[in-house]
Amino acid sequence: MRILVVEDEPQIASGISAALAASGYQPRIAADGEEAWFLGDTEDFDLVVLDLGLPKMDGLAVLKRWRTAGRQMPVLILTARGAWPERVEGIDAGADDYLAKPFQIEELMARVRALIRRAAGHASPVIESGPISIDTRQMRVLVNGTNVAISPLEYRLVAYLLHHKGRVVSPGELIEHLYGDDDARDANALEAVVTRLRKKLGADVIQTRRGFGYMVAGAPE
Length: 221
Prior knowledge:
alpha/beta, Rossmann fold, Arc Repressor Mutant, subunit A, 2 domains, five-stranded parallel sheet, four-stranded antiparallel sheet, 8 helices, 11 strands
């Protein structure tokens, strides 16, 4: 899943990005408001971590422009501005959550997981479909309650399909949300990952809709 980290302090941005990558996400960093607005307006992200005090364009202005344009990705405001009127302003502008600096990275990651789940219609950190379940806190995949060893890429694919279970996801969307900007992106490689997962999880877990894409059966909780 792709996450846009909008932060002009390089050390903070790097720390957040590293924590996200270690948790199976694909982070991208924007260091100023204009770059953030452009990326959020032209590319798809599963979530944005947005600082308010940015060069070139303030974070609230970026957020308001996104929402006016109909961009609906969850936004977590991250800022040193801790006064409650500013928090209210951020929420009213369209933010989904608010975390003041300084913060613990564990709390940030918990909020990220919760926002992504809720955006997909899931309340629990454990998402299930038939015999398959994922624990988003521990990045585990289980079949009938038994942990299955899978690679980080395989986990990202299963997690994305389970977050969007019941919906056919096109290969293009999967590739966009699974791979980093510097990774090789190939539909045949994606099919190879799906094939490996079917061997590990069961042949019928990931269904193919010819000409449309892949899906995991079920409906959001």
